[in-house]
Amino acid sequence: MKQQISGLRLGILGGGQLGRMLIPECIKLNLEISVLDPDIACPCSKLCDRFVCGSLLDFDTVYSFGKGLDVITIEIEHVNADALAQLEQEGVLVYPQPSVIKAVQDKGLQKQFYSEHDIPAAAFSLVKSKQELLNALPAFPFVQKMRTAGYDGKGVQVVRSAQDLDKAFDVPSVIEDAVDIDKELSVLVARNAAGEIKAFPIVELVYDPEANLVDYLVSPASVSPQVAARAKDIAIKVISTLNMVGLLAVELFLDKKGHLLVNEIAPRPHNSGHQSIEANITSQYLQHLRAICNLPLGDTRATSAAVMLNLLGEKGSQGPVVCDGIEAVMDMPRAYLHLYGKKTSRPFRKMGHITILADTLDEAMQSAKQLKKVFKIKGSESC
Ligand code: ADP
Predict the structure, then answer these.
(1) Does domain 181-382 match CATH 3.30.470.20?
(2) Is the CB of residue 150 below 6 angstroms from any atom belonging to ligand 1?
(3) Is 25's C-beta closer than 6 angstroms to any atom of ligand 1?
(4) What topology does CATH give the domain 9-94?
(5) How far is the CA of 147 from the centre of ligand 1 (A)?
(6) pLDDT digits (tens, 9 = 90+) for 343-358
(7) How far apart are CA 109 and CA 174, in angstroms?
């Protein structure tokens, strides 16, 4: 069935920054937007037609939020997928599909999916508890990942030696070989219900080792055309095997021997696509919307070299937000500031980002480093 776009009732589970950046694209197509989030002061609460404050994990809350909507999507995968499955059965379009959300919520199921479908990923085993991990004791170093509820690097730790075992998580976990990482990469790929698939050019993520969060994103990634083509093929294989509708972020490692391995996937707009708002013909947000509304997908080509700087809350402060150095951003002609509207800052919280366009990546990176020194987001109290 062809959806009537103007006036379509779209529900977004989660009211964070990803939802906030999806909303302007919904407004352009005149969608009626509902958002569910447990925080009444979340980045989307004032920007939608209908805001419901409630738990994303509670069956009844998600079900009654979704009843009567035309299409439901997510901007975070920690949601009640059973309620979404019920809504799907009753005729609401839910994209990504609840079955995909369920598979992604559990890193153990994700890993099993890769091995069943011959998708390259680090070797792994599953343990139910710390005791089981100690009994099995893999060779150091290895990586322990909580199967569920981890995000933004929380719930992931590298175990380098016997001393680190004290802090091992006592929950069901994935135990993974530590990859000798050369580069962390990401390919965003979208698929609509008609089966059309388009991938974005590959980008590179540079992590802050202390926060375990993306510091800079570089687009396009500095990799060989062969690596870029292989990564794109892997991303397309993942989305077609999942039969997923919507946008999928495929995070990859390039190891020091040149192998590409899938680290994890996220079936929604992603931190590794923020730069596409200014630096690609179609942004990841519009592409997601096109995919879930079964519209033709947009041209994904990059129009400029770009570096995206994640703005994390400064260490040592918390509370109501204070921004320093905004003039420097405004003085830079091709720097685009996005503030997420979070009321309070805390160390390493994602507060915003700046995308810098330039003729070359080197130039964009120099400008990003310059801005990182002077533009700070912090809380008004020390901590
Ligand atoms: P999250 O879901 O919280 O983002 P990830 O699984 O992406 O967690 O892991 C966070 C970071 O930890 C990765 O970006 C990478 O730097 C590091 N990491 C994860 N898995 C491995 C691994 N197998 N080997 C080496 N480093 C890893």
Answers:
(1) yes
(2) yes
(3) no
(4) Rossmann fold (3.40.50)
(5) 13
(6) 999 999 999 999 999 9
(7) 10
